[in-house]
Amino acid sequence: MTRLAPQPYELIDRSIAVTFLFDGKPVTAFGGDTIGSALYASGRRVFSRSFKYHRPRGLMCCSGHCANCQMTVDGEPSIRVCVTPVREGAVVKGQNFVGSLDRDLMQVTDKLGGPFTPPGFYYKTFIRPRRLWPLYEKVLRGAAGLGRLDPRGTPRPRIDVEHRHADVLVVGGGEAGLRTATDAASAGRHVILVEEGPEVGGALLADPDGHLRAAELKRRALAAGVELLAPAIAIGLFEYGFVPVACENRLVRIRAEAVVVATGIVEQPLVFPGNDLVGVMLPDGVRRLVNRFSIKPAERAFVLTADDRGLAAAADLERAGVELVGLLDLREGQPPNIEARGHKGRVEAVSVNGKLTRTDLVVMSGSPQPNYKLLAQAGARVEYDETRGIFIPTDLPASVTAVGGAAGEVGEPAVTTPVLGYTGEKSFICFCEDQTAKDLKYAIAEGFDSIELSKRYTTVTMGPCQGRLCHVNSIRVYARATGLDENAIGTTTARPPHTPITLGLLAGHPEEPVKRTSLHNAHEALGARMMWTGAWKRPHSYGADAGAEARQVHRAVGLIDVSTLGKLLVTGPEAGAFLDRVYPNRFSDLKAGRVRYGVLTGDAGRIMDDGTVARLDDETFYVTTTSTGADAVYQWFTWWNAVWQLDARFTQLTGAIAAINAAGPKARELMERVSADDFSNEGLRYLDARQVRVAGVPALALRIGFVGELGYELHFPSPHGDHVWETLLEQGRELDVAPFGLEPQRILRLEKGHVIVGQDTDSESNLHEAAMPWLVKNEKEFEWVGKWATQAAADRGLRWMLVGFESPSGAIPVEGGQVVIDGVSSGRVTSVRRSEELGKVIGLAIVPHALAVDGGRFDVQVNGKAVPMRVHLGPFFDPAGERLKA
Amino acid sequence: MWNIADMSLLVTCPNCGPREVEELRCAGESTKRPAAAAPSQRELNEYVYFRDNVWGVQREWWFCRVCEEWFLAERHTYTNEVVRTWHPGPADSPGGRDGSEAASQQEGAQVL
Amino acid sequence: MTVLDFLSPSLARDEGGFHPVARSAAERVFAAAGALFDERDGWRVPTVVPEEDTHLEAVGIADLSHLGKLEVRPAPDSPGLTVYRLSPRRALVLYPGSERAAVVQGLAGARLLLDVTAAYTVLAVTGSEARTLIARLTHLHQFPSGGEVAHVTAHVLPSGEGFRILVAQELGHYLAEVALDRAQALGGGLVGVDALPETERA
Q1: Chain A touched by C15 (CB under 8 Å)
Q2: Residue B22 forms part of a structural domain
Q3: Interface of A with B (CB under 8 A)
Q4: CATH at C170
Q5: What is the tens place of the pLDDT at every residue in A23-72?
Q6: Percent of chain A at pLDDT above 90?
Q7: In whole angstroms, how far apart are CA C53 and each of C56, C123, C124, C194?
Q8: Nearest Cβ partner for C135 among A164, A511, A655
Q9: What is the total count of domains within chain C?
Q10: Are residues C181 and C130 in the same domain?
Q11: How far is B30 from chain A (nearest CA, A)?
């Protein structure tokens, strides 16, 4: 029975019984136990199998630093059970073995593998025959690894992301952190303290009565107003005091004016043959078992120590009734040859200069290393203190300070020589990755003699402990082997996270913003197939036959929701002058109540966006843009005016205004049923813009014609979207009104040869080659944006032209299909559809300028064959525009 | 739309104060629009395509999505330190309004 | 009548047998929760939501999109009005729809006065966990201020003991869904406008 009689300061609550399953069998624990302590108390000594050699490993640090106690808990792999509180019904399993934890068949790699698995063996072996690579990969992957994820997935807990701000963030809830936090809070600062363990106290928690002092410090901190988060792991330290913290199922993103790093120290293993045997532990490991969980760890113990921590462990062991069969303080005299001997992976004896002493527990303690990782990641330098054999952070970034152990306050330990015994194999440097001192020396001999190179070759420090227990020792081995001093060797770059966190936590609670028009639900109710246009959802079509949907517009009247159009108000005395500067054509001469088409170009002459500009009065212009261009055009306008500082103001109204386009021969009749205003051809002429009232709602009616039929585009307040839409559909029933979506709209506009910016134009298109020379008004005074490049294109001679075409054979090329002339790629199809109304396949294509004549011929690749097309200049449907102006 | 910040840069908008970087849009290096009425092809190409791209403090344009206004910033392109931010005023474009004669001191930028 | 009447939902009127009622972008989210609606100031307003009393004990989300909103340039100095300054040149003023005439009169000196009532969805956040809900939506921590809220740009204004979130109306449905999700994780949910404390209602 390893559980001691109740001690006055123990942390377990023996009145609470908690039962969990290990390997399918129930284990009973006390309240306050960790899964690790409960398993140890139940007699378990082997907790995991090492990464490469599958050597048995037992509890070593009990502080969540090493990887020895990693198990799968409730489906989540690689949980450090030494710091995980027990919970009722938890399902705990070992990982990384074939067979059982106690009898792992993979241990053959330990017995036989040695010569075959030096560092970087996978670069040298398992190369030929190459066709077996998939098999090698599968075998190796299965042989070396940590936990397994259930492919069906463990139920993912809900993750919330929370944002916090503080004057001071203290990372680390040990004595130094608690005192600093309390002082800052008492001075009136808003302080948050994050502690990675379930409770504050740090090193105090290993002392027999330390948790009383910890409780008192905690009480004072809370009384001063410190906000405590525990367990909460700081993931990294970024610019401007940004520290993301993993707080169970919350990702807490903290921004602090000042950050104090109080992450304490990490006890360091000694390096000697057999230092990884089950039963070789660090002082804190032993002290926590004894003092917190009242566990007698062994019958006999041998203590090897380079500082006072080992002595404290020795004292605690004796109190627990353990026989101290040996105590070696390495600060006295010459370091001897040490070796730990074991049987079936468990320690049995210690050899000191050849003299053997039987023992079942070895406590090893090297110089405690300041836990500087966060500071290094934030940009601090790290310097080697030769007298104490530790690395200390210096040159901290602004607003970052270190206190306590992390700052180097560790007393006066001995500088231990790196390896206490060169004779044997299996002097482990890196427990996580199974790298021994000999492996490191091989790597150096092979030429990987810089620490960064060697790290990548040997993978030392790349395991779950992220260098906490191995980095310093590896540097000391380097120093010995290369003759360089530790400062010259340096440390490897510290990167976040240095405590493993789940990807799920970083993903947070993902959601995708969706922009909906106020008619969205109406579309869904009508059975529309919705599609993405940028961040908007728009109806693609309302039925299976987009062609028929388009024809209905020609026959009767169709309604399309164009609320996604960008809408800007440009107002002020110089609004017209401003528009003249950014558009190639003129707007200052546009009369109030009229609307004009406009295309925007940049100074490279490239077409950026298009839309309409309606003049509402002297100083008020209403500009529309493409659906995905609203923000870009707003920023474009406001940027230019930040430069020019004209007396004009700009406002985005994209979401405020809903817009419906009613188009078709019966559009006028429809409007007359919903409005008392004059929609006659004289009352509201083509290209007029006038305020009307539709179904009781004030609206701006623009008589324009993207789809080539008599049409009215109604702009009105978006909250009335449903009302206007439903009213139009209802009042138009006798007229055979029907909604139409984006796909039929594409067919209709193509019948008129209308360009869609971004579809028929690209980043090389200019106004001349996009067949819009009539927009270029060079006689304007100001050098409008794009004028020079547009003129340069004309001066150099046009090379391309965007033209309409028909497919006489009826074959439908793909959009993007190459125009081929004499075997050379010479342009492409930008848009193509079959028009039911016209009974043919039509499209737009970019072709060489010489071909831009009515009837011109060119070939397009269709399914590998060259298919002839015929140029058709001008609109395919109603070329005179009679229907538009009816 | 914006993803969770992958940079933790804070830039101070003159209206809104320090903002997380994804609440702003950096429109790049401030350049000089040619002053002449008909710049040569070379001058036009340099204006449209070339940038100084300094290793050091760069003058650049930023747009704040919150107040929807543009401001200028001086930022060190290596350390990311933002030295200052300010709204453009007459001092930044002395030619200002007519953009012709004094345009040589005027600043323009290709907004990407 | 002005050339910009077509911006104002409140200028809609009964005519020709038509009875226009303005609807909020978040309406469907509230309807899905079983909200009861009332017609107020020409809007369909969710006034009562089932189990709102339970929600209020943690955090409640209400839809205040029917409030009037004006964009004013330059930013006015008007005590007694809820003014949110975006910059010295620009501000938003929120008011109960029925008070429109008086508010507009009080801002007569403005260079530019635009009715942007239709532009924004307004969600009220109330209850003891209101601050936590805000922290789970956005990093903003001083109010009023604007910035990234649930991956979009929005503004958070203090309102009594609670808050109001202003977002472009095309994202109103999306944000209402996200806010509801966060509220439910905190034990709260949707509430009707009549359940809001007096100080947060208008």
Answers
A1: yes
A2: yes
A3: 161, 238-240, 242, 508, 512-513, 535, 581, 602-604, 634-636, 638-639, 642-646, 652, 782-783, 788-789, 791-792
A4: 3.30.1360.120
A5: 999 999 999 999 999 999 999 999 999 988 889 999 999 988 999 999 99
A6: 72
A7: 5, 18, 15, 11
A8: A164
A9: 2
A10: yes
A11: 11
DSSP β-ladder status, A242-247 and A233-234 = antiparallel
Residue ranges of A 764-823 with Cβ closer than 8 A to chain C? none
Report the gap between the CA of B19 and the closest CA in chain C (Å): 7
Residue C195 in any domain: the answer is: no
**Residue C157 is part of which domain span?**
17-64+119-189
C151/B3 touch (CB, cutoff 8 Å), yes or no = yes
Q: Cα distance from B21 to chain C (closest Cα, Å)? A: 10
Chain B residue closest to A243 (CA)? B8
Candidate from B4, B20, B67 with C-beta closest to C90: B67
ipTM over 0.90: yes
How far is C152 from A515, CA to CA, in rounded Å?
10
pLDDT in tens, A113-160: 666 677 777 777 777 788 888 888 887 777 766 778 777 766 778 999
What pLDDT score does A860 carry? 95
Q: Which long-range contacts (CB under 8 A, 24 or more apart) does C105-113 make?
A: C106/C78, C106/C81, C107/C70, C107/C72, C107/C76, C107/C78, C109/C76, C110/C72, C110/C73, C110/C74, C110/C76, C111/A649, C111/C73, C111/C74, C112/A571, C112/A649, C112/A651, C112/C71, C112/C72, C112/C73, C113/C70, C113/C71, C113/C72, C113/C73
Output the pTM of the full model: 0.91
Beta bridge partners of A844: A804, A831
How confident is residue B98, by pLDDT bands cut at 50, 70 and 90? very low
Give me the residue from B15, B19, B68 closest to C147, CB to CB.
Answer: B19
Specify the number of domains making up chain B. 1
* Cβ distance of B44 and A239 shorter than 8 Å: no
Tokens of C6: 């077509």
